Structures are given as C-alpha cells and as structure tokens.
Amino acid sequence: MLAVKGIYQRGQLILNEQVPFTEPIIVIVTFLEEPKKLIPKKYELAVLGYRAANDTEFEKAAVWPDAKTMCGHYDKLGLIQKITKNPPAGAAICYLPGDSNWNYGHVAIAIGDGTEVGATSLTQGITQRDIYLGTGYQGWISAEYFDNNYP
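RE: above sequence
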C-alpha cells in the first residue's frame, strides 16, 4: 500500500508527487479535515420559503420581482434599520440597485457574526462573506419585522 499526500479541490484530487502506476487503480481517500459548512446550523433563514426566526415555516410565495422592490416595501414601512452595527442572525440585508447587481438590488441573510449568506453570482452560487457596509448598503430588516409585515 502506498500513501501520498495531496489536496482535494472542486472535485479533483491533486497529488503532491508522481505515483508509479500507469493503469487505473482503486484508491481510498481519507480526508484529514472536516468539510466547512457554508451555512452554519445556528443560522435562521428569514426569506423565500425557509424557516423564520420564530421557528415557523415561511411558505408564502415571493411577491416582488426583485430585491429592489422588496427592500422598497420595507423601507416605506420604516422597517429598514439603516445603522451599520452588526445585524442579528436571520436579518435580511438590503443593498441598493447598482451596476454590480444589474440595478435589481441585492438581499442577503445575516449570520449574526458580521457575515452574510447570499447568492453572489451564477458561478459562485451561495456564499458566506463579510457584510459590506460601504456604498450600496441600504440597511437590514429583522426576521421578525420581515415575517410580520410580509404581504
């Protein structure tokens, strides 16, 4: 039996050294680290059919064509917290329309530790990243306000 160290990345196994086999062989791969979860278990999703912060099913259909219109609804109700402190877990974070989001706006969900989960691109899918508090940040809606004021 031969042991070779390497890296597993995006479905590929990259070995650190050449192996002396020319024909396909059966291998067993042992991962030395636990996989990192993109969405922590403590996270309480607040939008689009997932569990609301009060631990009830949120099964209402989406009524807005884009994030800009959704955030506008809550902004008109005065429910968007425009402060830049760390949003609580489950809060919907609103970003203003701009070139980077094709003028549709953007919504992500706060984890509660200064990071957010959202669909940032077609190639990256759902990612977790630091909340961006600069240009384009509109504010956040608590999961409770989101649920209680959903049409």
